[in-house]
Amino acid sequence: MERAKVGTEVLIVRDGRLLMKCRDGAHGTGTWSVPGGHVEFGETPEQTVIRETMEEVGVTIDSATLVAVTNDVFPESGKHYVTLWLRASGIGNETPRTTPGETSDVAWFKPDSLPSPLFTPLADLIAGKSIIPFDFRSLFA
C-alpha cells in the first residue's frame, strides 16, 4: 500500500515579495513554488527548510515557524504529500540562484503578480485549503 510522504515548503518574504522558484527535474517540473522538500530521517521540519532553501536557491534562513498544513494528492503521478508550510525569519542577503535539476528560475514576486502555473500545494494554500486556518495575504501585511 502506498503511503503519504511528509514535505515542507518555506514562505520567504522580503520587501513585500515572495521568493519563488520554478521547479526543475522533479515532481512538478515547470510549475512555480517556494523552496522546500522531503523531511530526511532525523530532521525537524525547520532543519529541512533551512537545508533545502540553501540547496535550491542559495539563500540562508536562520529559523522558520510552522504556519499551515495542506493535504496534497496528485492522482496523475500517484503521489500524496502532507505538506508542512513554514514561514522563514532571519533571511540572508544572498542573491537567489538557480540549481540545475532543482530550480530553473528564481525571483521575488508581489502577491498580486505571482507566476503560473503554480505547484498544486501552493495553489491549495493560496486558495485557503490548509488544514490549519491560514490567510496567505497575511504574509504581506
Any overview of this molecule?
The structure is a single chain. The protein has about 140 residues and is mainly β. It is built from two helices and eight strands; from the N terminus they run βββββαβββα. It has helices at about 45-55, 120-125, and strands at about 5-10, 15, 15-25, 30-35, 35-40, 60-75, 80-90, 105-110. It has a four-stranded mixed beta sheet with strand order 5-1-7-6, sandwiched between helices. A hairpin with an 8-residue loop joins strand 3 and strand 4. The longest helix has 13 residues, at about 45-55. The chain is globular. The mean pLDDT is about 95.
Concise overview:
This protein has 141 residues and is mainly beta. Helices cover 14% and strands 39% of the residues.
- Biggest sheet: strand arrangement: 5-1-7-6
Order of helices and strands: EEEEEHEEEH
Oligomer state of the chains in this structure: single chain
Structural class: mainly beta
Are there runs of 5+ residues with pLDDT below 50, and where?
A: none
What portion of residues is helical? 10-25%
Average per-residue pLDDT, rounded, comes to 95
Sheet with most strands:
4 strands, mixed
Compute the number of helices: 2
Number of strands: 8
Radius of gyration: 14 Å
Beta content comes to 35-45%
Task: Name the descriptors.
four-stranded antiparallel beta sheet; 14% helix; 141 residues; 2 helices; mainly beta
Topology, element by element:
Elements lengths: L4 E7 L1 E2 L2 E7 L8 E2 L2 E3 L6 H13 L3 E14 L4 E13 L11 E7 L10 H7 L15
Parallel strand pairs: 1-7
Antiparallel strand pairs: 1-5, 2-3, 3-4, 3-8, 6-7
